[in-house]
Design goal:
The protein has one domain: HUPs (Rossmann fold, 3-Layer(aba) Sandwich). Helix 6 crosses helix 9. The protein is an alpha/beta fold. It has ten helices and six strands, in the order αβαβαβααβαββαααα. It has a six-stranded mixed β-sheet, with helices on both faces.
Length: 262
């Protein structure tokens, strides 16, 4: 027996305002876009799903939204129940199963499992975008992720780099957007708890089983923020130029329409 539709819990204005500002500043969404959202089952991607569904109801442009969940078939991690949740939300979804951990053991060469898994998932996402006629891929990394990536690049790569807010893939047929780039992880966590989102615990058990460089950077930033409350605001100000560096002009929501998205 099918379950009744779920009422959408409205995300807080603080989250909607920051996402609307990022969409406007980086011209992420244009009229007629077909967006594929990658949902791992974690608090961030599920929160972004709620935010984009809410924006669909009043945004000044029309866009379509569908969801992709990749099941890496890792022991102890089962995102399968999300399929029923998507049905109750009324959002089109695709569920892909691929034994990424087993494949990594066979094919990984001088790489971390996290890097291998991320690369394989990205390939799946691009393929599904093409199969479904989606021109935009939405990912749920937030400001904390960007700050951690910046420190990892500085400490271990000797480069000033972080994740891009909006860019075109190498093949030139899919735009990648990160609408949460102005948001803090604690904001998506608070929304996930308040809205009782069906978060899948430990969305990557293979990574959680051992300390990672990213986790080290997360702890370092948390310690520094205690004594420097404006740390992340300062980091955002510093990295904003490299969040768009090298991008080509792309169609999207113009900055003077920002107020419609807040």
């Amino acid at each position: 027996m099918s379950q009744p539709p779920l009422p959408l819990v409205k995300p807080p204005k603080s989250l909607l305002r920051l996402v609307g500002r990022a969409i406007a500043d980086f011209r992420m969404i244009g009229d007629g876009d077909r967006i594929l959202l990658g949902v791992s089952g974690g608090k961030d991607s599920l929160s972004l799903l709620h935010i984009l569904l809410h924006l669909q109801t009043y945004a000044p442009v029309r866009f379509e939204l569908m969801v992709l969940t990749v099941d890496p078939q890792v022991p102890g991690f089962d995102p399968g129940p999300l399929r029923a949740y998507y049905d109750r939300l009324g959002v089109p979804w695709i569920y892909e199963r691929q034994p990424l951990l087993d494949q990594a053991k066979q094919h990984m060469d001088g790489d971390s499992f996290c890097a291998y898994c991320s690369r394989m998932k990205r390939g799946i996402m691009y393929r599904v975008c093409r199969e479904q006629g989606c021109n935009v891929l939405a990912l749920a990394q937030h400001l904390d992720d960007l700050a951690e990536s910046l420190l990892m690049s500085l400490f271990h790569g000797g480069q000033l780099r972080t994740m891009k807010a909006h860019y075109l893939n190498r093949e030139g047929d899919v735009r990648i957007i990160r609408p949460l780039v102005y948001c803090r992880e604690r904001q998506s966590a608070a929304h996930a708890e308040r809205a009782a989102l069906p978060v899948v615990p430990d969305s990557c058990p293979a990574c959680f089983s051992m300390p990672t460089r990213r986790e080290h950077m997360k702890r370092l930033l948390a310690r520094e923020e205690v004594g420097h409350p404006h740390l992340f605001a300062n980091i955002l100000h510093a990295i904003k130029p490299i969040m768009t560096e090298g991008e080509q002009p792309m169609p999207g929501i113009q900055a003077d329409r920002r107020h419609h998205l807040e």
